């Protein structure tokens, strides 16, 4: 299936504009994060309490959330399981100074007491999960290690298969996707949970896969376009894979959009992260990865030219070349040259 017959768009021309746009988005995310006191962590990382309630009648999530608001402040209330089962999940964040154990269990009991006093309906507790601060910190550390290990493995693979500058370009695009995704998570006030970390790892591999397809085509074009500039070779490769990139990203985007719309609050953070990552990954494949690879290749070429320059060009004195004087005309009447 072809959606472009002979695409010939000059994507490399807009590389500096794309880099500037990405910097604006990332810096805006950092500023928003700083204004809100840091990245919002989910209960998986910050610790807290999860209570699962089963009501005998249909009870809306907003009713439960309104009843808990005066006593617990901001809480996460969401449907749990099928709608016909009338189950609701309540998440309480870790309070300052709260320790793991009895105090966390009291928080779960306090939820039951508040809802009973509010008269939201008849219910029973069918499940309780408590995540203490020690476990949350451990999960946070493991999440960081998993992300760094995946990026390191990707760097080694691309560095072996392609040029080193291409590997740096791919890793720069990967970090770009992670930072842009975290920025949008901050803009829309999503918590960083284990589901979100799983989505970030997924889009990391997804973005690198797209980048490898483009770089593989660049390597093939080098064999037939040796006299062309690097910019032209890379731009041709991006155009040649443009249809494949859009079709792959489009179908994945539609599938994840269905999860976002119909998957419920449990999958909302995961699906939102995937949606942003798919768009950012396609964008970085076309603009960021190729641009970084070209910039580094140019710098490497300049360093090679400088290393092979004459001594005078690298700051040392060289022997002065004396321009030969023009031959003087011979005087008339001189001795004849012997034959």
Task: Give the gist of this structure.
With 339 residues, this protein is α+β, with helices and mostly antiparallel strands. Helix content is 63%, strand content 8%.
Structure description:
Helices cover 63% and strands 8% of the residues. It is α+β, with helices and mostly antiparallel strands. The chain folds into two domains: 43-131, Alpha-Beta Plaits; 136-303, Up-down Bundle (Multidrug efflux transporter AcrB transmembrane fold). It has a four-stranded antiparallel beta sheet with strand order 2-3-1-4, sandwiched between helices. A hairpin with a 7-residue loop joins β2 and β3 (87-93). α3 (61-72) packs across α4, α5 packs antiparallel against α6 (164-187) and α6 (164-187) packs antiparallel against α7. It starts with 14 loop residues before the first helix and ends in a 32-residue tail after the last helix. Residues 314-325 and 332-339 have low confidence and may be disordered.
Q: Look up the CATH topology of the largest domain.
A: Multidrug efflux transporter AcrB transmembrane fold
Radius of gyration, rounded? 31 Å
Question: What's the helix-strand series?
Answer: HHEHEEHEHHHHHH
Give start-end ranges of low-pLDDT stretches.
314-325, 332-339
CATH architecture of the largest domain: Up-down Bundle
Question: Strand-residue fraction?
Answer: 5-15%
The overall average pLDDT, rounded, is 79
- What's the arrangement of strands in the largest beta sheet? 2-3-1-4
Major beta-sheet overview = 4 strands, antiparallel
Category by helix and strand content: alpha+beta
Give the % helix: 55-70%
Number of strands: 4
Overall number of structural domains:
2
CATH H level of the largest domain: which superfamily? Multidrug efflux transporter AcrB transmembrane domain
Text of the CATH class of the largest domain: Mainly Alpha
Give the overall shape, derived from the CA principal axes.
elongated
How many DSSP helices? 10
How far apart the termini lie comes to 86 Å
């Amino acid at each position: 299936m072809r959606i472009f017959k002979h695409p010939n768009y000059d994507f490399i021309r807009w590389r500096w504009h794309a880099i500037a746009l990405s910097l604006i988005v990332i810096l805006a995310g950092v500023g928003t994060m700083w204004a809100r006191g840091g990245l919002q962590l989910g209960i998986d990382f910050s610790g807290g309490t999860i209570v699962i309630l089963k009501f005998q009648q249909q009870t809306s999530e907003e009713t439960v959330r309104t009843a808990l608001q005066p006593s617990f402040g901001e809480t996460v209330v969401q449907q749990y399981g099928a709608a016909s089962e009338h189950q609701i999940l309540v998440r309480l964040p870790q309070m300052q100074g709260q320790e793991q154990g009895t105090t966390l269990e009291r928080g779960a009991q306090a939820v039951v007491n508040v809802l009973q006093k509010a008269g939201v309906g008849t219910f029973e507790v069918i499940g309780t999960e408590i995540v203490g601060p020690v476990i949350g910190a451990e999960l946070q550390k493991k999440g960081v290690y998993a992300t760094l290990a995946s990026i390191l493995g990707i760097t080694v693979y691309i560095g072996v298969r392609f040029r080193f500058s291409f590997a740096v370009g791919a890793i720069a695009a990967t970090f770009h996707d992670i930072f842009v995704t975290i920025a949008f998570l901050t803009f829309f006030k999503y918590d960083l949970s284990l589901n979100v970390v799983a989505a970030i790892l997924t889009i990391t591999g997804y973005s690198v896969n797209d980048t490898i397809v483009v770089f593989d085509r660049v390597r093939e074009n080098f064999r037939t376009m040796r006299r062309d500039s690097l910019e032209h070779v890379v731009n041709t490769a991006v155009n040649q894979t443009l249809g494949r990139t859009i079709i792959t990203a489009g179908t994945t985007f539609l599938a994840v959009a269905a999860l976002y719309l119909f998957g419920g609050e449990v999958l909302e953070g995961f699906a939102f992260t995937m949606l942003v990552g798919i768009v950012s990954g396609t964008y970085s494949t076309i603009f960021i990865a190729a641009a970084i690879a070209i910039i580094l290749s140019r710098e490497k070429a300049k360093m090679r030219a400088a290393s092979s320059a004459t001594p005078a060009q690298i700051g040392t004195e060289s022997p002065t070349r004396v321009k030969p004087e023009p031959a003087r005309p011979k005087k008339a009447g001189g001795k004849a040259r012997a034959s």
